[in-house]
Amino acid sequence: MKIIVTGARGQLGSQIVEDINKGYSEIGELPEVIKNAEVLGIDVEELDISDLNKVKEFISIQRPDVVINPAAYTNVDGCESNEQLAYQINALGARNLAIACEGIGAKLLHISTDYVFSGEGNVPLKEYELPAPQSVYGKTKLAGEEFVREFCSKYYIVRTSWLYGYNGKNFVYTIMKAAQERGVLKVVNDQKGNPTNAEDLIHHLLKIILTDEYGIYHCTGEGECSWYDFASKIVEYGNIECIVNPCTSDEFPSPTKRPTYSSLDNMMLRVTVGNEVREWQKALKEFIKRQNRTY
């Protein structure tokens, strides 16, 4: 099996490549066919996914069995001020990979986001719920989903949220650094979602691609919380002396309308490959124990 991973210098893409090469995730051993797979990690330096002709040529030459696409323009505020770039990467990039994969009969696993939903309500969202994005980031990611569904017959779309991993920048590292430096933090308590450890997500991505269970998946940490709850547990598990105070979103004005409630339900996992995703507190505790950054 040959697997291409886009965005391989990003937080998720780099960790996918590492886990395949190791042959296991924190949840457990990976299937033998994954352990023995040839994995090729690429980023914009190797391939600009917004260029259709280059994507078709590259995929045609490499002829992977599966393409995993975490590549995205994820700066949500940046998307608001640079809509064209967001569309090129999040929408056209997904379209181009879908067209190229279809051309050689390859599978495409595309990473998407909770931002495709309105962010309203109070019940975890299942895969069949109607999207209604409120931000440019969410709208361009939804456009990418629609292109994948239109142009590739062997697709998996996996939506995740509040992702953190060992590589790159994320909320956990930001809070740990700020807590150590300041000793007092204010974190919003009126936005709820699912913190997701990249190890949990990756383990399930690599199970999904071995099946013909095509369609849309949600894959997020089990259980929901607010950003304040999340930050409080980061400080607690990190044994950092810091006071975390709750506040409202109004105290941190943003050009982007962020979801007030975006918890996702991993229903498709439960009824297909099985849901082994850990409770978010357990996964976070393990992450903080294993991470080795100093601030």
UniProtKB/TrEMBL annotation:
Protein name: NAD(P)-dependent oxidoreductase
Superkingdom classification of source: Bacteria
Species annotation: Inconstantimicrobium mannanitabidum
